[in-house]
Design a protein that fits this description.
Blueprint: H1 3-33, H2 37-40, H3 57-60, H4 83-90, H5 100-103, H6 116-119, H7 131-137, H8 141-144, E1 149-158, H9 166-169, E2 176-177, H10 179-192, E3 197-206, H11 219-223, E4 229-236, E5 243-246, H12 258-261, H13 265-268, H14 273-276, H15 285-299, H16 303-306, H17 312-315, H18 329-336, H19 343-346, H20 353-359, H21 363-366, E6 371-382, E7 385-388, H22 391-398, H23 404-408, H24 418-432, E8 436-446, E9 475-480, E10 485-490, H25 516-524, H26 527-536, H27 540-568
Parallel strand pairs: 1-4, 2-5, 6-9
Antiparallel strand pairs: 1-3, 4-5, 6-7, 6-8, 9-10
């Protein structure tokens, strides 16, 4: 046999061996494919409606090679198809004692076999604060799963045909309900729709049921870090549009944090936990008097104290106590509206009520002995919304670690002159290349804890709307520094140094101009609703009356001319 014959023979044997090996490997697979699911159902009738995706019986029961099959089959592995889910489940506490089929009916995968409550019967959650609120509004995964995102859904169902005017719900027409607007809505529901409305809150989380943690998520994740629930939607029946976005902080109260406490005014002054927490009982006013005896000497004779309506801690959270000047108008207003939620309704006598509360805190009128000042601050205008300028924004403009106070106050006299503020404002606008505004608010710069009774409040508009208003004698600008915002005195003449457009936030009269839609609402409204709509016009009512009078005068002139022409003829 020559060499070529030998090579040809070896080649033939090699091909034959490969063919045999290929047949041995693929034969079971080919034989599987020859067993249709219908044949299996001949004996397993209860699986007639079998549904596990588009899988066939033999794709899980791979050891079936022929029918009838062996009585005992190998346990199928879900991992073959669900590798990613299986890897997640490996780190779950359920991995120790639960298999896939303990929760899932693998033959009818769309039909869940068990829920959390099926196994965890009688779990008390007694250690959970506000237990009922948590358990009714949230699912188990919110705390026990690895949650990354979440939304709050607030549904308000009104059982009346009448709807709530959108102008009342959203006066600034930005389709976003602030804390103030939400408080106003609650008051309306309480006063006008009491017992005739339903309010449901639902906290929806995006979490994987296969990643149940050994310990529930920390309270801090939702209440302080605000990392999960960053959006809130409010749906109200009878309102068009019926869906509003809202500030999620409204529905998630903050909790004390030891980590953040050292940055508060109490923490900075070295006050330790045990200095106030001398027992397990709630902190009383006697604890606060230890340091604040002078303030309490004023407060103890006021309406709030005498009636026992408010302890110090009802208004001041000692774990988040900041210097009063650090609080903006919304924060200061938020302290009072914890109890006085009907403040909008109670101040309907005040023209353009909501506009006033955008600029004024309660103590502006209800604490006559407090010192009021005009406080200016810088803000960025973005998409029709004014956002306070942060220290990081100033660092981008003027460099890291900038001392803003020294940068503005060029002559270092401790007072900002109009030229200094103008130079800073124009330079900042040029560098950032954004629309910047100087926002003003009337705030209390020196607190007096004697809050007056209702009958002592001032209803005289000229108290504020005049050149003699007390806050025009005291001007400050709030500047963000690295650690906190600081107040720097400003000469009152600073207003005259800027175009009025910059100070548009200070324009009280004529803040909102009358529109054609306002006339349409008034004239189309029924007799019962018309008075309410007119009341909602606020300062726009002046324009409304003026235009009506002008039209009447113009119409009279036209009629007079026509009559003269007709009579002459």
């Amino acid at each position: 046999m020559d060499i070529f014959t030998t090579l040809a023979l070896c080649d033939s044997i090699g091909v034959m061996n490969i063919f045999i090996l290929f047949f041995l490997i693929l034969f079971p697979i080919l034989s599987h494919s020859t067993i249709p699911t219908e044949d299996c159902l001949g004996c397993h009738e209860k699986f007639t409606t079998f549904k596990h995706g588009n899988n066939k019986c033999i794709q899980c029961h791979s050891d079936i090679t022929s029918l009838p099959h062996d009585e005992k089959l190998k346990k199928p592995s879900c991992n073959n198809c669900h590798k990613q889910t299986s890897d997640i489940y490996e780190g779950s506490i359920h991995k120790k004692n639960l298999s896939c089929k303990d929760c899932h009916d693998v033959h009818f995968i769309e039909r869940q076999k068990k829920y959390c409550i099926d196994c965890h019967v009688g779990v008390s959650h007694d250690s959970l604060p506000s237990k009922e609120k948590h358990l009714q509004g949230m699912e188990c995964l919110a705390c026990h799963g690895k949650t990354t995102k979440g939304n709050m859904l607030i549904n308000i169902q009104i059982d009346q045909k009448t709807s709530i005017s959108r102008d009342i719900l959203d006066p600034d027409k930005n389709r976003f309900l602030s804390r103030i607007e939400w408080d106003n809505l609650q008051t309306i529901l309480l006063n006008k729709y009491k017992g005739k409305h339903q309010l449901k809150k639902q906290y929806v989380v995006l979490s994987n049921a296969h990643s149940i943690m050994k310990k529930p998520v920390s309270c801090n994740v939702c209440h302080n870090e605000k990392g999960i629930f960053q959006h809130a939607k409010i749906t109200i029946s009878g309102v068009s549009p019926s869906v509003f976005s809202a500030d999620p902080k409204i529905f998630i109260p903050e909790l004390p944090s030891i980590k953040d406490y050292k940055h508060t005014i109490h923490g900075k002054k070295g006050i330790e936990c045990f200095d106030c927490h001398v027992s397990q009982e709630r902190i009383s006013d006697s604890t606060c008097i230890t340091c604040h005896d002078e303030l309490y000497g004023v407060y103890k004779n006021t309406v709030h104290s005498k009636k026992g309506a408010a302890l110090c801690t009802d208004c001041h959270n000692p774990h988040y106590t900041k210097a009063y000047k650090e609080l903006g108008v919304p924060d200061r207003l938020g302290i009072c509206v914890r109890c006085h939620k009907d403040y909008i309704e109670m101040h309907k006598w005040l023209p353009n009520t909501v506009l006033h509360f955008n600029y004024l805190e309660c103590s502006t009128c209800h604490s006559p002995d407090s010192t009021k000042s005009m406080v200016l601050s810088l803000a960025l205008r973005e998409n029709g919304v004014r956002l306070p300028i942060k220290y990081s924004d100033l660092e981008k403009a003027f460099g890291k670690g900038i001392n803003v106070k020294d940068f503005i106050d060029k002559d270092a006299d401790g007072t900002i002159r109009s030229e200094e503020l103008a130079h800073f404002f124009l330079e900042l606008t040029k560098i950032l290349g954004k629309d910047i505004a100087i926002v003003s608010s009337i705030v209390v710069t020196k607190v007096h804890h004697n809050y007056s009774e209702k009958n002592t409040k001032s209803k005289v508009c000229a108290t504020c709307h005049s050149e003699e208003a007390p806050f025009y004698e005291s001007f400050f600008i709030s500047i963000p520094e690295k650690e906190e915002s600081i107040y720097i005195p400003v000469k009152g003449s600073v207003i005259s140094a800027f175009p009025s457009s910059i100070f548009i936030d200070m324009c009280l009269l004529g803040e909102e101009k009358i529109k054609a839609a306002d006339f349409t609402r008034v004239f189309k409204a029924g007799r019962k609703d018309r008075s309410q709509i007119i009341d909602e016009l606020g300062f726009k009512l002046i324009d409304f009356i003026g235009i009506i009078l002008a039209l009447l005068i113009f119409s009279g002139i036209i009629i007079h001319i026509i009559l003269r022409v007709v009579v002459k003829r």
